[in-house]
Amino acid sequence: MERWLRQFPLHQIHLVDGDVLVKDPLSQLQQVERFLQLPPHIKASNFYFNHTKGFYCLHAVGRERCLDQSKGRPHPSVNQTVLHQLCHYFRQHNKNFFRMVGRTFNWC
User: Within 13 Å, how many C-alpha atoms sit on residue 14's CB side?
Assistant: First the structure.
């Protein structure tokens, strides 16, 4: 991120929280529309929850679009000790990133 910020001011960069995007794509894509100063076109009716895949899919212009079979699959469980170690290892890197972008994410 530091390299990106050398080339572009932060107000020209939009970060999407992938965890929120999966759970609430409407709010995240509406934020993208506002950031890009696009007229608002994305509505709740553009999304439906696919119970088979376990995530939201897009419904627009009479077409339904869902991620392909390689996406949306269950993630393997990771040992809590390993997660704790990873969070500890990356703590300072995450703090630096959060400081640079002026927001935090719930990664750990």
Answer: 11
Residue-wise pLDDT tens digits, 41-59? 999 999 999 888 888 998 8
pTM for this prediction? 0.80
Distance CA 21, CA 33 (A): 14
Contacts of 89 (CB under 8 A, 6+ apart): none
Strands of the sheet containing 55-60, edge to edge, are 47-50, 55-60, 63-65
pLDDT in tens, 65-82: 887 666 666 778 999 999
64 by Cβ neighbours in 10 Å (0-12 / 13-18 / 19+) ranks as: exposed
